[in-house]
Amino acid sequence: IRRMYVPDSADSYLIQADWKQVEALVTAWLANDTEMVEVILDGSRDIHTENALVLADAINYKGLTKEAADDTPFPNDPSGRSFRQAGKLTHKLHYGLGAEKFSRTYGIPKPICQRIIDTYFGRWPKLKAWQAATIAEATERRCLDTGFGRLLRFWGFDRKGRLTDKEEALAFR
């Protein structure tokens, strides 16, 4: 693909952006989680590996190291993912994935999914606070906006007035 670009002059450059971990970075920035931002921006650390260690802790898997996260299979995963690959699943938690859907989607027992969720947000508590604030705002205002002025109205609320599509609210923000 690079060969299809022809420079106008000898001093022209093709710049390639590295979007690795950008979704986690944006979420961490929105949540004002400076520690997660630092992990992502630190070129020697990887957020998926960090989250793999959180997963290992949540399921009481002893002895996982950062170096072994790529090669160690996540226990009982029918897809055969490594711990590091499973660490990417935690990004779904940013969008409000609950234990029930987590269990159905990945075939992991619900109590273990809940323990993973609790451990994850214990490690990154500012993300949980950001989620709660976003959902509270969407429920109260019945809409959310972005820093760029885009507005999304919500129509789905249960009988107690709670927002029913929390995942959409978190993904929108």
Write out key terms for the chains shown.
173 residues, globular, mainly alpha, 9 helices
List the helices and strands and how they pair.
Layout: H1 22-30, H2 34-41, H3 47-58, H4 83-87, H5 91-94, H6 99-106, H7 110-123, H8 125-141, E1 143-145, E2 151-153, H9 166-172
Antiparallel strand pairs: 1-2
Helix pairs in contact: 1-2, 3-7, 6-7, 7-8
Any overview of this molecule?
Helices cover 49% and strands 3% of the residues. It is mainly alpha-helical. It starts with 21 loop residues before the first helix and ends with a helix. It has a two-stranded antiparallel ribbon. Helix 3 (47-58) packs across helix 7 (110-123) and helix 6 packs across helix 7 (110-123). The protein has nine helices and two strands, in the order H-H-H-H-H-H-H-H-E-E-H.
